[in-house]
Design brief:
The structure holds 2 protein chains of 2 kinds. Chain A is mainly alpha-helical. Chain A has helices at about 1-20, 40-50, 60-65, 125-135, 145-155, 160-165, 175-190, 200-205, 215-225, 320-325, 375-385; strands spanning about 80, 90, 105-110, 115, 255, 295. Chain A folds into 2 domains: about 40-100 and about 125-195, Cytochrome c-like domain (Cytochrome Bc1 Complex, Chain D, domain 2), CATH 1.10.760; about 200-390, Cytochrome c-like domain (Cytochrome Bc1 Complex, Chain D, domain 2). In chain B, strands 1-2-3-4-5-6-7-8-9-10-11-12-14-15-16-17 form a 16-stranded antiparallel barrel. The relative contact order of chain B is 0.11. Classes of the chains: A mainly alpha, B alpha+beta.
Chain lengths: ~400, ~450
């Protein structure tokens, strides 16, 4: 009978379905697997470590972007020294160059928020663009010009490999060779697994393979809560719907009113201010004075390895940094110098005209003197315990 | 005959324009719902057409040769009888349908939030290929204007083929409405009381809920209708812990609408409705399917069930419904989201009771005042995440809606009502609406 056989068909279908669905092992994207670097990337790796490409003969990309600190500054100096004699002080701390493969060129998004770009002020449009600039910067690798860099490159141990990949006559065309060199560096940064490992305890936790301790979980909750740390507002901690793991930055910019760092050489002149986004090289943002004092939101991955924090290296410990976040406005006298009349010179690293640019509306910087800070001392320790889970496992 | 296989966009537009012209000449159309009655109507219409053809044949024969009496019917009639597709069709093969709602809301405490909206404009067509097979589709435009900077949305609400397997059994394949609750399959403005759809059937049951898959429909002579099948389900990786959508409607925020839907985990569903006594409907449904598709840190399942009844004695129209949804393994899914604004609830439910009365009728005019009381909680419980980390259960909202539907003509309704909330008093509002359906 048609009805009877139909019922059988439906029952069989349902049985097959129930055995097929459910009971998955939660196979979220695993850590990227090791594959050999491409020819370009392998050249890029050698160029990255080559100190002979600097005027001092002692500085390579790896010198200021050390793998031990998450490919950020190697020591607790606010800025590294460069130049031919390694005596020229830098102006800003060396940011971590990990997890930048998905960053875009600087642009304003659909809501008008400045987003993307490389360097603290977003002036480079790509990894390739950024890679080329330190070679010619007077307080970094300090090569006099592009031709000089290529001349040094042609004498490197891997020059033959470079010719093989880019052409036998490549060194006779210095502009092309420089473009290929920076391309190789970009390719290395995109392919090398240490620069996009996703092997931290938090990544394993997102994959369902590890669990956080009670303190780390409390720290994560304080990190996410809009009424406590509210860190996730600029440093997102949740997986995207396509399954990709969070980078802990939204690649946007913010002005936190970080206190002036007297340890930086250029700050000896009280008239000099590092204005970030609006004052960047090229002058394309000069008209946007509302963005003076804004700097890039860095990724918090491997933040526990870093030795200095913020663009001016003002703080050397996570404890000081997080305490500044929550006590900047409740106890300004702890962070800023006093004026002659006894009042606090808040946001002293900005000229008076731009102090209004500082973010005072988003938590946790929306409190006032005498208010209770958004995080207590113990809660800051909880957040630091959570931030420690963002350190990639060493391969 | 129907060669609409691979049309480019301009040709598709021309085809749509042509079918609209066809619709203008059609005086008769049917809605895509009430499958059981529609099927019986189809059968009756086809049989009538066949009888008419036979009569015409016999009249012609009697006119041509009066001495021939009740001779055996000629071959064409015998051929016509078993195949109810008559050459002289009483109705067209392609039928256009439509419904729409234009709505005005005015919060009583916040008149600055008043808004008016073409809430939905729906065009549907059904095409009958043969006596047993038809295609049912519905296209919806919400909020009038759709573009990257406008609030509107264009969506396919239904697109399925229905094939009659036997007199009692039919199969549907494609994108179809889920047989859940009282509103989901009958959601035209003329089918429910009140300007806005009730909260239980929007926040708990995510009307208009459609999935893609295969459905078997059994309609029995004792009044029982069975609907069961396999379909796509929800996607928990869409849960946005920083937005409030999940608090407004948990399943509404993770539905896929067969738009590049993740389909590793499929779902099973079943619904039973009994209409044995005229004027009484009692029924229920159950849906269950995985929703993590191997992409979340843990595998989780969404389950939703409902019980409903509707009784229309005399001038009264009484209905009641209870629905409850649950999601498994939410502790593991919520762990990376601790502290965020909206975590995934473990359970959510709601119920309502409604009474309407046909107070006044005059020719086609019908005035039906109604009262509806509903209670719902979109976050009835959360799985334990540890002390200080587990969110508290959401507050149970209570909504009372008092108003009236006024039918101007069958298929046109004007509605007005007042809504009052216990928790979110800022949402108290007056609503006006115009709806059509044909």
């Amino acid at each position: 009978m048609a009805a009877g056989s139909l019922k059988w068909f439906v029952a069989a279908g349902v049985a097959a379905l129930l055995s097929a669905c459910g009971g998955g092992t939660g196979g979220a994207p695993a850590a990227p697997t090791e594959t050999a670097l491409s020819a370009q990337a392998s050249l890029g790796e050698q160029i990255f470590k080559d100190v002979s490409l600097s005027a001092s003969d002692r500085q390579s990309c790896a010198t200021c972007h050390s793998a031990d600190t998450g490919h950020a500054g190697p020591n607790d100096l606010p800025a590294q020294f460069g130049g031919a004699l390694l005596d020229q002080p830098g102006r800003r701390s060396s940011p971590s160059i990990r997890y930048l493969a998905s960053n875009t060129a600087f642009h304003f998004d659909s809501e008008g928020t400045p987003t993307g770009g490389f360097f603290w002020d977003g002036r480079a449009t790509s990894l390739q663009d950024q890679a080329g600039r330190p070679f010619l910067a007077a307080n970094e690798m300090a090569n006099p010009d592009l031709a000089d860099v290529i001349a040094k490159l042609s004498r490197a141990a891997y020059a033959a490999q470079f010719r093989e990949v880019f052409g036998a006559d490549i060194f006779s065309r210095p502009d092309d060779a420089f473009a290929r060199m920076t391309l190789a560096l970009q390719q290395f940064q995109r392919e090398d697994l240490r620069l996009r490992a996703f092997t931290s305890k938090y990544d394993e936790f997102l994959r369902g393979k590890a669990s956080l301790s009670e303190q780390e979980l409390r720290g994560l909750a304080l990190f996410n809560r809009a009424d406590k740390g509210n860190c996730a507002a600029c440093h997102p901690s949740a997986k995207a719907s396509d399954g990709s793991h969070p980078l802990f930055t939204d690649f946007s910019y913010d002005n936190l009113g970080v206190p002036r760092n007297p340890a930086l050489a250029h700050n000896a002149d009280p008239a000099v201010f590092d204005l970030g986004l609006c004052a960047r090289e090229g002058g394309d943002m000069a008209a946007r004075t509302d963005l003076c004092g804004a700097f890039k939101v860095p990724s918090l991955r491997n933040v526990a390895l870093r030795k200095v924090f913020f663009h001016n290296g003002r703080f050397k410990t996570l404890k000081d940094t997080l305490t500044f976040y929550v006590q900047r406005d409740t106890n300004p006298e702890k962070w800023y110098p006093l004026n002659p009349d006894g009042s606090v010179n808040k946001f002293d690293d900005l000229p008076a005209a731009y102090k209004a640019n500082v973010n005072t509306s988003e938590a946790p910087y929306n409190r006032g003197p005498g208010d209770v800070p958004a995080l207590s001392d113990a809660e800051i320790d909880d957040v630091i315990a959570f931030l420690a889970t963002l350190t990639d496992a060493v391969r | 005959m129907n060669r609409r296989l691979h049309l480019s966009t301009p040709l598709r537009r021309t085809a749509l324009a042509a079918s609209l012209l066809l619709a203008a000449t059609c005086s008769h159309a049917q809605t895509a719902t009430e499958a059981e009655l529609a099927r019986k109507l189809d059968q009756l219409a086809a049989e009538l057409a066949s009888v008419k053809a036979q009569l015409q044949q016999m009249q012609q024969q009697r006119a041509a040769s009066p001495q021939v009496t009740q001779a055996a019917p000629a071959a064409p009639i015998a051929a016509a009888a078993p195949a109810p597709v008559a050459t002289s069709r009483a109705e067209p093969a392609t039928v256009l349908s439509s419904y729409g709602e234009i709505i005005y809301n005015r919060p009583t405490r916040h008149s600055e939030m008043a808004q008016a909206d073409v809430r939905r404009f729906v065009l549907g067509f059904q095409h009958r290929f043969d006596a047993k097979t038809k295609l049912v589709t519905e296209l919806e435009v919400e909020h009038a204007v759709t573009s990257s900077s406008d609030p509107g949305e264009v969506a396919i609400e239904q697109a399925y083929v229905e094939h009659q397997l036997a007199p009692t059994w039919a199969a549907r394949a494609g994108l179809f409405l889920m047989p859940v609750g009282l509103l989901n399959e009958n959601h035209e403005p003329t089918a429910f009381y009140g300007v806005e759809r009730n909260f239980v059937e929007t926040a708990i049951i995510p009307t208009t809920w459609r999935e893609g898959g295969l459905q078997i429909v059994g309609s029995f002579d004792n009044g029982l209708t069975l609907q069961t099948g396999i379909s796509t389900g929800f996607d928990l990786t869409k849960w946005d812990a920083s937005a409030s959508d999940g608090r407004e409607s948990p399943l509404g925020s993770i539905h896929q609408e067969l738009a590049l839907a993740k389909a590793r985990d499929l779902a099973v569903f079943g619904a039973l409705n009994w209409r044995g006594i005229p004027g009484l409907q009692v029924g229920g449904s159950l849906f269950s399917g995985g929703a993590s598709h191997g992409q979340a840190g843990a595998s989780a399942r969404v389950t939703l069930w409902d019980l409903h009844t509707r009784w229309t004695p005399g001038r009264w129209d009484l209905s009641a419904l209870y629905s409850r949804g649950s999601i498994s393994n939410t502790a593991a899914l919520n762990a990376p989201l601790v502290g965020s604004a909206t975590l995934i609830p473990q359970s959510f439910d709601g119920w309502y009771a409604q009474a309407a009365y046909k107070l006044w009728t005059h020719e086609d005019y019908v005035l039906s005042p109604f009262l509806r009381y509903e209670q719902f909680n979109t976050a009835r419980s959360f799985a334990d995440l540890g002390p200080g980390l587990t969110p508290g259960a959401g507050a149970t909202e209570r909504a009372v809606t008092l108003g009236a539907n006024f039918q101007v003509s069958p298929g046109i309704v004007i509605k007005a009502d007042l809504q009052n909330f216990r928790e979110n008093k800022d949402a108290n509002r007056v609503n006006l609406g115009l709806g059509w359906s044909f």
